[in-house]
Amino acid sequence: MPGKRARRHFSHLSEFERGLIIGMKTAGWSMRRVAGQVDRSECAVRNCWEQWTREYTHAWRNGSGATRNTTRRADRRIVWQALVDTTVTRSAIRADVGVAIVPQTISRLLVEANLKSKHPFRALPLTPEHRQLRLQWCQAISMWTVTDWQKVVFSDESRFVLGTDDNRVRV
Question: pTM of whole model > 0.70?
Fold first, then answer.
């Protein structure tokens, strides 16, 4: 699969692969030959080798990424608010927490807490009595003739949401 190979080029190098790259480059192999051997891009091999020659280490560095704007306590408060009031909005949560965070941060925290939006349960499951009544109705209709069916009007129901609210409830 060509897509799988392309994705592998951009994944992180393992410790073993980093050691291989350093060993092969120390032995005098070219960047292209090393990249072909470990099935990685030449850019990844070059970055690994440059880090080795600059720092004499091939270990993955910590501290990358953006700094956190919320504390663990604020994170728990955001999740708690979503649990208590299922109709609360992200902007209301952000105003209550009092920390300057983007709405995507709130969404990410709620997804990490396994809180997702879904449609509320609208129909009750059928009881055995309901099933029996439906079966009787189907058996009665199965005896209809063509003239009986010509008196029936069929319609198609479609749901259109004109606003932003699609009646999803956070559960």
Answer: no
